[in-house]
Give the backbone structure.
Amino acid sequence: VDGQVSNLNVSATPALESYRAQIRQWLAETEIPEVPLDVDERFEVRRAWQKRLDEAGWISVDWPSEYGGHDLSALHQVAVYEELIRAGAPLPVTVSNLVVVGPTLLAWGTEQQKREFLPKLPGGDVIFCQGFSEPNAGSDLASLTTSAERVGDDFVVRGQKVWTSYAHRADFCAVLARTNPAAPPHKGISYLLIDMKSAGVTIRRLEQITGNSEFSEVFFDDVRVPATNLVGPVDEGWKVAMHSLGNERSRIILQRRAGAQIAFDEIVQTVREHVATTGIQLPPTLVRRFGEVHTMLAALDGQVRTIVARLANDAPRSGLDSLDKLVLTEVEQEVFALAYDLLGPYRLAGGSKPFGLEPERWIHDYFYARSWSISGGTTQVQRNVVAERVLGLPRT
Ligand SMILES: Cc1cc2nc3c(=O)[nH]c(=O)nc-3n(C[C@H](O)[C@H](O)[C@H](O)COP(=O)(O)OP(=O)(O)OC[C@H]3O[C@@H](n4cnc5c(N)ncnc54)[C@H](O)[C@@H]3O)c2cc1C
């Protein structure tokens, strides 16, 4: 691995290049914040940064301008993420706003919901979390038991959610609840927006292997939710949720690919400097790993191009979003496994910095990356989906 490692340039047209030049100029004139490791401090720093990015017009650029966007394309958004990487700048923090709930409201929300919520999402003025998973409903999401009973102008919600990312920071939660208990599992579910300050909402934070507490258990005890907060038709929330999850799996790559590239470039830079100053050579097996990861990142670039084309045509998902997520997860995990393996057994010894790498940071990121084959639908389940819906293999 030598010279330029970044393979940044998803597509170069004169219009896009001029847009790119504007972002670069803005970034060159803007103070870029350092991101701390602690999950709460990190959130605050990245939230403030996201607000600045939004004020400058670099967030949700492919949303309609009437709802807080800029009427541009997903390619423009990818260009923004790429320029952020190039400048070593953090990415926006509220993935749930930008990738999950925002696109869901654009597709399924009422006009009132779009006008009320969408303009507040890009700058993180309102923060959403996603309340789908329950203690007994993860991969088998349709077995969820949280209920929503219609009483007058409200739904009364009872039940428990788990693994709710950033619930402790959220203003609203997008919740799946059963509105028709007599219907088959995939029917009779509705998608509701619940104000986290409502009476009866309790949030209990969970600790992760990294030592941080990013997600929570959320309890709903007779929480009253105005019926105007129903997204999509009543009892048809499964369709809304599947659209939302499919969108999340594809769209998240546009941003997370950028994060993987930032990390890889940093590993290369650090190791290169270390080798140059100490003369210590990398074993050939590790040199080969650099080449492999570089190639995987280039393949992920190809995947980004296909996603952008699909998003532009609003093409049916039919399992391709599961393929997107599988590719992303594998590449991301390989990037951080490379850092972890470079640390080698020295990661156990305090005070050492193998190949110049900071163990605390890279061990944290390696463990965090393990969660990506679970969140948003596990790798095993996504493989089943690809086998059945993309390859047409028989159902198991
Ligand atoms: C970092 C992180 C953030 C998350 N954030 C959120 C969030 O904000 N909101 C939210 O609602 N949820 C969130 N989740 C939860 C996530 O969606 C679930 O963990 C995931 O869907 C898996 O469900 P489960 O944990 O119940 O595991 P299970 O479904 O119990 O699966 C256990 C194991 O069995 C395997 N398995 C299950 N079914 C099959 C099958 N049919 N074929 C083959 N293997 C199978 C799985 O692959 C897995 O290895 C998050 C999870 C993580 C790790």
Summary: The pocket of flavin-adenine dinucleotide is lined by residues 129-133, 138-139, 163-165, 215, 371, 374-375, 377-378, 380-381, 384 (CB under 6 Å).
